[in-house]
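Ticket #4471: structure export looks truncated?
Reporter: QA, pipeline team
Priority: medium

Steps to reproduce: submit the single chain below to the structure queue and open the exported record.
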Amino acid sequence: MIDLKFIRGNIAHDDLSSLEKKDVKYQIDSLKEDLLQVEYPASLLLDAGWYPSCSAAGFFQIRVIENYNWDAPLYSSTSKTIPSLITELSLAQNFIENHQKAY
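Actual output as written to the record:
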C-alpha cells in the first residue's frame, strides 16, 4: 500500500494508495488514468494517473490544474516507478504551496 499521509490537501479521489510499493509491471491491471485527485484552496487540483491505462509502456503523469483548465496545467511531470511518483507528488504539492503564497 502507498501511504499518502504526506498529502496536505483534500483527497477527492484515491485509487493510488491501494497500489503496492513494488514494480509497476506486477500491477499493470490496476494502473489507470484516474488514480489520485487532491483539492487545494484557490481552485487548484493535484492529479495523478497512468497513461495509457493498463499499458506496460505507460508512465505516471502528475499535473497541477487551476480552475479545471485541463488544457493548460500549471505544473506537469512524469514518472515510471512508485518511488519516483512519490517524489514527484511531493514536488507538485510544494509547487502548489508556493503558488498559493504568490497570490
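Status: closed, not a bug. The export was complete when the record was re-opened. Leaving a note from the reviewer for reference: The chain has one domain: 10-102.
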